[in-house]
Amino acid sequence: MISQTVEYALRAVVTIAQNAGQPCTARTISEVTQVPTAYLSKLMQRLARNGIVNSKRGMHGGFVLAKRPEQLTVWDIVEAVEPIKRIRNSASGIPSQESNLCPLYQCLNTALDAIERIFRESTVAELLSRPNDVKPTSAV
Shortest CA distance to 124 belongs to which of 65, 56, 80, 79? Predict the structure, then answer.
């Protein structure tokens, strides 16, 4: 349902959040998340441009969250990296009101509504606080 890019972004942000405000280098994030370094670098630039992370240069530099984990939602990260595309047209490609979409597209939009609601309600802090032996950044 979500792309690998979004999954990588979520892993990176959770890894940074686990570092409790201390800068996290791209190399460390890459090692922890198992995201290729070159790909991660481009992804981190996108997250920085969209206000999810801040980068600090220098010897003790790295990435930190731009907001507290309690204020940062999964939706914020998804929207910054790869916004979910909503269905706005009928199967024929003609723009429609949602009520005029075919039953299949109405069903898909309902599913997307549910996903959006859950993503908007889920903060990074909540992801970190859920009891589990598996860390959120563990490779799947």
Answer: 65
> Could you tell me the pTM of the whole model?
0.82
Confirm whether 17 is domain-assigned: yes
Residue range of the domain that includes 62: 4-83+123-129
Contact assessment for residue 33 and residue 41, using Cβ atoms and an 8 Å cutoff: no
Q: Give pairs for 98-102: CB < 8 Å, separation 24+.
A: none
Q: Which of 67, 66, 69, 61 is nearest to 23 (CA)?
A: 61
| pLDDT digits 0-9 by tens, 71-92 | 999 999 999 999 988 776 655 5
Extract the residue ranges of the chain whose pLDDT is less than 50: 138-140
Number of domains in the chain: 1
Residue 108 lies in a domain: no
